[in-house]
Design a protein that fits this description.
31% of the residues lie in helices and 26% in strands. It has 17 helices and 27 strands.
């Protein structure tokens, strides 16, 4: 990956995403006043998102033996009463008394005062003091006349059925509750034993006060969630799983270091033995997710950290909480993975509300399982992959997306659109499409076609020319170096596989020029 995104990259990436088909605001072309916070993934953005989700399944879900399921987007209101979301799931806002616009106060302060640290845990009175002393004016009308801090529940509640007069259901704000209420049946049907791991990829909904920064804060978004149900008195299985990873270094911003922003690097062994990460299970998953985002997704390690959340910042269900965050110059530190130790809060809450015992039998007797939940924000991950990949110089701008993540694996072009070259190129594209996602284009000059592919991150272009008709060779071009080699068409499938896996272009054929 190219490295940390420099200042100004966010706006350039959002513009490119709109223009080239990664993502854009929903329905705005036809209805400019459509509500904010809803985004369409175009063909390229959809491909990138699917590749990230597939890597999560390949590197985490399947190796860890997680059972993946799909639960409804809408659940009975009783579920969210039992889970505490109706009571605790809110953001704090202030309202302009002149134009009645509403804003999430912590984010308003962060943006208007240039605060780089997260303000979610600050008391209401401190946030209001900062608002007044900073003379923060209404972004809509410019007035300086604010209400007191108010609380706003983020749930979308709905009246389901012709006879319903009050909301009796809600769109889920997380996939977790779907897994929790289906834990008992899934555990029984899969003949489970603790630790028992469930996984969900799904859409969730939050009625954000002020959606902004494109895919960072949305009203409808997607999560990749792992739900680890375990016996808190027996994490011995993870003692063994963690053993080969004990020397791996984790990066933390501890509560005590908030003022300085100093990141502490400690090994997994030190984190565990000090009690900081509680037990071997939690320590293991913290290692797995930092490694995943660094080694698999390709985000620079020096731009990642686990931010420890204090008691006033943690979700109502969490006794310990670390956000895996990524840093860019434009957006500062942004959460990518919510890592919450939810204890037995969820299952006990639903047991009490439903009257159904959700404890399970273990060798040491009946246990109310605890829950550890790492939850990836898939949309934010897409945005940061694009931001970290954006490169420009005096000649061109391009996305240096890791080859295995690129939405288009390979592009196939005829040098010119005549003399039988398009027919050969189209046939080659069909051959390769059985293994790769292929883009075919024959319009404009070959240089312009190369630039279009560079801009959307296509790592390899193949050109059919007049020499192809003579000896069956084609030209392969590397997106990043613009180097070209001549390669045998008959060996292209294996050559492309090797290149996408990281092989240098020079190993695939005879260099040109």
């Amino acid at each position: 990956m190219a490295g940390p995104a420099v200042k100004g990259t966010f706006e350039k990436v959002v513009e490119l995403a709109n223009r080239r088909g990664f993502f854009w605001p929903s329905a705005r072309d036809l209805y400019p006043q459509a509500p904010a916070g809803f985004w369409v993934y175009g063909p390229l953005g959809y491909r990138l998102k699917e590749k990230i989700a597939d890597l999560w399944r390949r590197h985490i879900v399947r190796p860890e033996g997680a059972f993946e399921l799909e639960t409804p987007l809408m659940l009975p209101i009783q579920v969210f009463d039992a889970s505490g979301h109706l009571k605790h799931f809110f953001d704090r806002l202030v309202e302009c008394k002149r134009c009645h616009s509403r804003f999430r106060i912590d984010k308003l302060l962060e943006e208007k005062l240039g605060v780089r640290e997260n303000l979610e845990g600050y008391p209401d009175e401190e946030l209001r003091r900062m608002l007044l002393e900073g003379e923060v004016r209404c972004p809509k009308c410019g007035a300086f006349d604010w209400t007191e801090v108010k609380r706003f529940n983020l749930m979308f509640t709905i009246a389901v059925g012709a006879e319903a007069e009050e909301p009796n259901a809600a769109l889920r704000p997380e996939t977790t509750q779907g897994s929790v209420v289906e834990f008992r049946r899934t555990f029984l049907t899969m003949r489970g034993k603790l630790p028992f791991i469930m996984a969900q990829r799904g859409r969730v909904f939050r009625n954000e006060i002020a959606p902004r920064r494109a895919l960072v804060r949305m009203r409808e978004f997607q999560q990749l969630e792992i739900h680890v149900f375990f016996d808190p008195e027996d994490t011995s299985q993870y003692d063994e799983k963690l053993r080969p990873l004990l020397d791996y270094r984790l990066r933390f911003l501890r509560l005590d270091d908030r003022d300085t922003g100093e990141i502490t690097e400690i090994t997994a062994r030190e984190a565990l033995e000090s009690g900081y990460t509680i037990n071997s299970l939690i320590t293991y998953w913290l290692v797995i997710y930092q490694k995943f985002f660094n080694e698999v997704i390709g985000l620079p390690l020096e731009r990642l950290r686990y931010r420890e959340l204090g008691p006033d910042e943690r979700a109502h269900y969490a006794s310990a909480h670390w956000d895996l965050e990524v840093y860019t110059e434009d957006l500062g530190w942004v959460e990518l993975v919510n890592n919450a130790y939810r204890t037995d809060y969820d299952l006990k809450g639903h047991s009490k509300a439903s009257g159904i015992d959700l404890s399970v039998q273990t060798p040491r007797g009946k246990v109310a399982p605890h829950l550890y939940e790492p939850s990836i924000g898939l949309d934010r991950t897409v945005l940061h992959v694009l931001m970290m990949s954006y490169v420009e110089d005096e000649k061109r701008k391009w996305l240096k997306i890791p080859r295995h993540l690129a939405p288009i694996d390979v592009a196939v072009f005829p040098l010119v659109s005549k003399d039988g070259l398009p027919e050969v190129a189209r046939e080659l594209a069909r051959e390769l499409s059985g293994e790769f996602f292929v883009y075919y284009d024959e319009k404009d000059s070959i240089g312009r076609r190369y630039r279009r592919m560079d801009e959307v991150g296509t790592p390899l272009c193949i050109t059919v020319d007049y020499q192809t008709l003579d000896d069956g060779t084609v030209t392969l071009r590397d997106r990043d170096t613009m180097a070209q080699v001549r390669a045998d068409r008959a060996a292209l499938v294996e050559a492309v596989k090797r290149f996408l896996a990281g092989a240098p272009l020079e190993e695939l054929g005879t260099p040109l020029g």
